[in-house]
Known about the structure:
Keywords: Amino-acid biosynthesis, Aminotransferase, Branched-chain amino acid biosynthesis, Pyridoxal phosphate, Transferase. Belongs to the class-IV pyridoxal-phosphate-dependent aminotransferase family. This protein is α+β, with helices and mostly antiparallel strands. It has helices at residues 61-65, 88-101, 109-122, 198-202, 205-213, 259-271, 282-290, 328-341; strands spanning 31-38, 42-50, 68-70, 73-77, 83-86, 134-143, 156-165, 176-181, 218-222, 230-233, 237-242, 245-249, 275-278, 294-301, 305-314, 317-320, 352-354. The site of pyridoxal-5'-phosphate has 14 residues, from helix 6 and strand 14.
Amino acid sequence: MNYEFPITKTTNPKQKPDPKGLRFGTEFTDHMFVMDYNPEDGWNNGRIVPYGPIELDPAAVVLHYGQEMFEGLKAYKTPEGRVQLFRPYMNAQRTNNTNDRLCIPTIDEELFVAAIKALVKLDQDWIPEGEGTALYIRPFIFADEPFLGVRRSTTYKFMIILSPVGPYFESGLAPTKMYVEDVYVRAVKGGTGEAKCGGNYGASLKAQEIAHEKGYEQILWLDGIEKKYIEEIGAANAFFVIGDEVVTSELNGSILPGITRNSIIALCKKKGIKVSERKISIDELEEAYRAGQLKEMFASGTAAIVSPVGELLYKGERMIINDNQIGPVAQEMYDTIYGIQTGKIEDFMDWTVAVE
Length: 356
Ligand SMILES: *Cc1c(COP(=O)(O)O)cnc(C)c1O
């Protein structure tokens, strides 16, 4: 099916930011995508309009009961000027898994991707050029029925906004310090940990602030029951290099299935690097560290792609990883994925989708 969306162009285009000073998620482009849902018409009236505030009834379900989800992916411009997305159908699938968990109506995957393409095409001059930059794409859905009662909303809005971004961490690829959280938990099996929804983040802010006060940028979450097994990191998945094995926690129902995570596993397999998805406990990490076998640790996610971890604090014990330097596996994964995304490396995994 060929989707077309009416476009209302802005009469007041904004000044584009200097790509050198770009941070993450502070600037937005000239347009946004909006689509409505009601039980009679399903998803309908997809349109592109000037970026700006939206009107919402104060009784909208999302404001009271948090029926909301979001996604994140990026668009890049290749040296030849081709605009491309990285694995957008994975985001479409994950959207529908999240929607199912939150009783939000699913969206046709082709429609989801077509909406992203149409908006990125219109605002493609906003794709920044420069190392570590990209156009971040934020699709999201929220319940907008005015109704104070706990049941699924009958109406929704699907929107997409775009943000030219620089490196997620101001430190770029410099290693970050991570706090192993042993009081608060992010998610438990049976909850919404594997859904990409705002509620998970609201619940994580407290622990994040405490970690910040102690001088740590990020949190490593442990499982919600035994507080023993590694789950994930803030908004990213966790990878370790133990001896010659690359390890990440297996998807257990409370971990968000990252697309970057999936890509790193696939790349390791392709390159003949030993990689496992399995349970990994904090005790195993400590033992590996003491035995000199914890070679690398890094976070994976769309925002930073790969972000090395140089220090881990668990119950007062500090572990300094790889001399606080980025390690070879993290560097290779970053270079390969960013290279494919930006078209500087041939897409031998068939991951990019052109915006035409
Ligand atoms: C989005 C997200 C990730 C990373 O997923 P990617 O698809 O790689 O960006 C990891 N954990 C959480 C909690 C997330 O919200």
